[in-house]
Amino acid sequence: MIQEHDPGRRPCKNHRIAGNNVTHHQRKVCIVTPEFPPEQWGGLARTAQRVAYHASRAGLDVHVARCAVEDVPFIPLDENSHIDRRDGITIHSIRLARETTLSPVRNLWECPHNTTLQMMYQSLDILHEREQFAFFHSFFLYPIGYVTGLISKRFDLPHVATIVGNDVNRYFFSPEKVALCKSALENSDIVVGLSRDLIALANALSPVAGKARTIYNSVELPVTRWQRNCAPHTFVLGFAGIFKYAKGLPYLLKALALARNHADIRLELAGEMRDSEKESFNIILEATGTRDAIKHIGVLSHTSLFDWLMTLDAFVLPSVTEGCPNVLMEAMAAGLPVIATRTGAVEDLIEDGVSGIVAPKADSLALSKAILAVSQNPDMASAMGMNARRRMELFSSDVEFSSWSRVYEEVLGS
């Protein structure tokens, strides 16, 4: 049976992991992640940071190993780690080399990732030899979960593997990576997914249901709540994120073109466009004729994201795959009317027609109808925004903390 936390369950705010007989080393955890603030502020980085703070609040000695790959062929292992102490957490910034080309004289079975993966393993090995961790906790199945699973099994230590989104939704369909993702799942004692959808797909690859837990992201409610602009104006729709396949931007642009036949609407895009996506993005812009209706405002800092959300009339997330989208939760917490597609944790976050509108994924017509419904019914939109804010009260930091504390209690108890 797949277990998950109940967003409505009242947490114990001052809960600390029990165990008077647990030694210092037995309370030491190594959280291994490819991203961590302030170097990155994406969804994965912010989730890893929150969990690290939760673990520290629960009384654990928290070490974070942030593994970053650099475009250099060699970095000495005795020079590749920098230690910093932030808010009671020890951060190990680990630099990994990457081979850029394959020499024709090399072994037939070698690949460009050998050095990087080997360095990651060796760096964690050296770190564990020095710190003597009680258990490991990885974020993202490949390469982090795969390598962390190996090091955990070697030392017969528990391993919590957290799946967040693309590690399941994308890498499961890569012939090169899927076996390593499966290894990460098999070499874990507990698998935590940020949505039931992710756990279900992981279970299709490797049986994890008996050791799986669903823990949603949390969000803080801002003091200031979104207010509707009652003056006549062009309806402003907003999207934020990395412009990549998973985010479903082509369907949003097609939906925008359809909706603009009936209403005055423009779209603001906040985020980063990858070079690999620029050609397809420009093609769909030309095909839909929406270029003049779109404003690209670039990457926003985490602190300025809220100010931008306050300027919108509605927020839309047209993803074809998702985990538990932080930016959607932040828009809802601000009281902004939201539209999102049915994927990942979206249906657990939004009560369709009550705290937002849930549309089918990869369906431009349905998405355009949802956009028109919100833009042409301002009273309904405002009511959904207020309900969205109340809904996010169920996904508080205390609830998330309680859920992770139970996972760590289970690990230490084993």
TrEMBL record:
<dbReference type="InterPro" id="IPR001296">
    <property type="entry name" value="Glyco_trans_1"/>
</dbReference>
<dbReference type="GO" id="GO:0016757">
    <property type="term" value="F:glycosyltransferase activity"/>
</dbReference>
<feature type="domain" description="Glycosyl transferase family 1">
    <location>
        <begin position="233"/>
        <end position="391"/>
    </location>
</feature>
<protein>
    <submittedName>
        <fullName>Glycosyltransferase family 4 protein</fullName>
    </submittedName>
</protein>
<keyword id="KW-0808">Transferase</keyword>
<dbReference type="Pfam" id="PF00534">
    <property type="entry name" value="Glycos_transf_1"/>
</dbReference>
